[in-house]
Amino acid sequence: MSRLPRALHPGAWWLWALGLATAASRTTNPLLLALIIAVAGLVVASRRGDAPWAFAFKFYLWAGLVVALSRVLFRVLFGGGDTGHVILWLPEIPLPGSFAGIHLLGPVSAEYLLAGLYDGLRLAAMLICVGAANALADPKRMLKAVPGALYEVGTAVVVALSVAPQLVESVLRVRRARRLRGGRQRGLRALRGIAMPVLVDALDRSLALAAAMDSRGYGRGTGATRPVRLATGTLLVAGLLGICVGVYGLLDGTSPGWLGLPMLLLGLLVAGFGLPLAGRRVRRSVYRPDPWRLTETLVAASGLLPAAVLVLTARVDPGNLYPALDPLGWPGLPLGATLAVLVALLPAWLAPPPVSVLSPARAVAA
Amino acid sequence: MTADTTGGPGGGGMTGGTTGAAGGMYGGVIGFEAVTVTYEDAAAPVLRDFSLAVEEGELCLVAGRTGVGKSTVLGAINGLVPHFTGGRLAGRVTVAGLDTRTAPPRELAHVVGVVGQDPLAGFVTDTVEDELAYTMEQLAVPPAAMRKRVEETLDLLGIAELRRRPLRTLSGGQQQRVAIGAALTAHPAVLVLDEPTSALDPTAAEDVLAAITRLVHDLGTTVVIAEHRLERVVQYADRLVLLTGSGAAVSGPPAEVLVDSPVAPPVVELGRLAGWSPLPLSVRDARRRAAPLRSTLADAVPAEPVPVPARSDPTGGPVLTARAVVVRYGPVLAVREVDLDLPAGEVVALMGRNGSGKSSLLWALQGTGTRHSGSVSVGGVDPAQVPPHRARGHVGLVPQTPSDLLYLDTVGAECAQADLESEAVPGHCRALLDQLVPDVPDDHHPRDLSEGQRLALVLAIQLAAAPAVVLLDEPTRGLDYPGKARLRQLVRALAAEGRAVVLATHDVEFAAAAADRVVVMAEGEVIADGRTADVLVASPAFAPQVAKVLAPQPWLTVDQVAQALTGVRA
């Protein structure tokens, strides 16, 4: 296996991360969830590059913390945990009128708090897994790997992503310029003073971009008949919807079984018909496509394995995955699930080191 | 116009043009045959009966005053006019045998590469390598060939170090070179550039022009380029197409066309003045002929570019005093402890490469921009400590994109709003505008004005508050030579009224003609501050053409030489 620095196929990282997220979705065991977060963090720390998006991981960590804590806070705020070991006595405030029946605060039991914490931790772990994928793989390179049929959608997304920072820049510039004129208006009039130049600026830019794209051959030779376009469009949209629903079904353990894997496969099948059909009318090539090698397969598999193990365990023997809170006790660590999650740590060594954005010949020191 | 009767070039199977008697005339890689372009809602055509043949391997420079149709000519080459812009094009435009009537711009992408004025606006991807590959991807060039061409182009333009960098983090000159590279990778027969150096400092402009001339000389690419600053490009051009404004054009070797052109670089004007024929186009040409002129001028003393104004008045101390001004953006130090005194009636040119802190300093002086430490005082008032509408009564700033200040529908409404904002009598701003540029109709939309008129409108709005200090950030952008001459008079008039004026500019010729004093910045520090002649004559990057031709004598402008010559002859 080649150890030369290169960018791993973004699809491999996403499969790995989604697998880990699926595993996280099948357990509320805090030890297991902490292990999953640690695994994701370790792999990110050892295999992320020095590009701007790679530093977004810490925002996901913060977001995860906020999610977990707010879950606990809401439990305290809306009370209702008076069974079990009550550890906090807060005054109960019943809501009047149409909110009758709901009361704020009240006694809080340890069981009730812990259940909230476990649940929040599960959400946080899933969020952090997605964050890991974002930090490890350039989100825009992912678009490059999409089939030719989705190329136009991909271009629209890339353009839209680059418009947002430009718009912010434009607003800041015009706001600053407004102050040069005094700018004492408030409310709608002030808004107009900023919105007009910004919109005019945005319009000018999009016209310039459209002209540039036209001059550079965007949309060359796509002569497809209307029925063909309609058929491919329908197949693609239906297929993508199927894939989305399938992924949702897999991640959400409580949804009916047919919503998960079968839906995903069906979506893939429909899209599988649509993609080549649509791809036929797109004549273009891809610069430096990311190859899919053995390493990619191994990385993807190391993420999918814990998913498979935890999904199966949850079905067969969910005991240790959802630790009981009654009686209150230290959760056990299921051996099989733990080993499976640890497998997801392998990419920290398996994956080739990333390439530096700033000095292309060098690898990023891990 | 029945253009179908005239023939097209012989090559290319797609035109189906019949080779008529006139066919031989249009043998070039680019052919305009009796082209007339009329935009919607326009009273008169932009181009009228315009014919042009550009031969393979030529560097063709399109020049003329603002608004004569330079961009129209450039856009017509790859069919953006009229396919993208709308309007009506009569006659025929062919490129490498393809007729733009049947081929829209995207179908010409392999023949014509286009580089726009603002490279950032035309970037589709976000890293250098992807941008270089974009056109090839659209053309379905095989991956192996793409890889090779990207590497070659990176080397050709000297941007190999930048290959993975995000485009937004590059400097203006680097972005422009990437944009040229992105057009080149498709191996087009024709490269079209619209004012490629207008936003660049002199050194970055040299880099870009060096890259372009290398393409012409080494690869035989045909290049069509529009440029306001002829002094930068004309020496490299094989053909000059001068649009006269009536819809017609003169085309020929630059030295011939420039004999009576309304737009001409200083070196040509010097040549006209000294009666040299053929006219010199480069500093080198002129210098080789200038020995007699230098000996004629040996005893003459250059007049001050303008009569020494009120600054010799002993009672007038500096209007603005800045001490140890520091501006910092995060970890980046933009301005490092700058001291500056601006006396009344003096015009100061602030120069330095892109990113040297010129704009940051101007904004800090005005009080709206950030200032980390240091002090600014205008008549005892710190403009940063008073509310914005008071600050503009002390210091007025016209930013780099003046249109940011405009948001109303008509010129009249903007002027009325400015009177309200400045608590001036109604009609004050309009009167100022009429002094600056007469004949700007009240009912026009500010966006429909020319660059020069729009600049004047924003300047009038800022002057309505009667500031003692006027700061102009890159005011010459998009102005032609007559426009710059007018701006120079305007700036001098402001100084004569006793205001202090600062111009941040890359335009050395403009600075030489308009400024009393030049301040040069580098990395946020002032590295030179002195009389215009003292600072500019000695500098290799910032010396105006006349100074280079007549060195070591300290002449800056053609006007100075003309004045001295009349003195000598009289």
Task: Tell me about this structure.
The complex is a heterodimer of chains A (366) and B (570). Chain A is mainly α and 366 residues long. Chain A has helices at residues 10-25, 30-47, 57-78, 110-136, 139-144, 151-180, 187-215, 226-251, 261-279, 294-316, 335-343, 347-350; strands at 86-88, 92-94, 103-105, 108-109. Chain A has three domains: 1-145 and 289-366, no CATH class; 146-217, no CATH class; 230-287. In chain A, helix 6 packs across helix 7 and helix 10 (294-316) runs antiparallel to helix 11 (335-343). The longest helix of chain A is centred in the middle third of the chain and has 30 residues, at 151-180. Chain B has a six-stranded mixed beta sheet with strand order 6-7-8-3-9-10, sandwiched between helices. Chain B has a six-stranded mixed beta sheet with strand order 15-16-17-13-18-19, with helices on both faces. Chain B has a four-stranded antiparallel beta sheet with strand order 2-1-4-5, covered by helices on one side. Chain B has 22 helices and 19 strands. In chain B, helix 6 (172-184) runs parallel beside helix 7 (202-219). Residues 1-26 and 310-314 of chain B have low confidence and may be disordered. In chain B, a hairpin with a 5-residue loop joins strand 9 and strand 10 (249-252). Chain B is α/β, with parallel strands linked by helices and 570 residues long. The interface between A and B is large, with 53 and 70 residues.
